[in-house]
Write a sequence for this structure.
């Protein structure tokens, strides 16, 4: 239920950083669903589209978000944007992340 949902504000980063993604496969844009598996350290293990080594920065950003929320003694379950829903499940030592259109 909605009563069980808590919201944690993530502190703003003091420094900006860039995430270089070497190559976007065409499926990245055309498919609405993406699945990623990475280690708790942020090491890429699986990506539905693209080579894991080419999107290692994305895995690092997702792990940084998870770590920031965990540092506040909370668990990041999802992030909603206007056109995407990011869902995270942590099963030590692995993290599963799924990205889809919110209506799916």
């Amino acid at each position: 239920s909605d009563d069980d949902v808590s919201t944690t504000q993530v502190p703003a980063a003091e420094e900006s950083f860039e995430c270089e993604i070497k190559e976007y496969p065409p499926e990245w844009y055309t498919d609405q669903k993406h699945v990623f598996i990475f280690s708790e350290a942020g090491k890429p293990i699986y990506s539905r589209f693209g080579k894991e080594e080419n999107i290692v920065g994305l895995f690092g950003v997702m792990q940084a978000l998870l770590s920031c929320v965990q540092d506040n003694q909370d668990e990041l379950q999802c992030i909603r944007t206007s056109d995407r829903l990011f869902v995270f499940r942590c099963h030590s030592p692995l993290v599963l992340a799924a990205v889809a259109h919110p209506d799916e």
Observations:
- Residues 13-17 have pLDDT under 50 and may be disordered.
- The radius of gyration is 14 Å.
- The beta strands are 34-39, 44-47, 78-80, 85-91, 94-100.
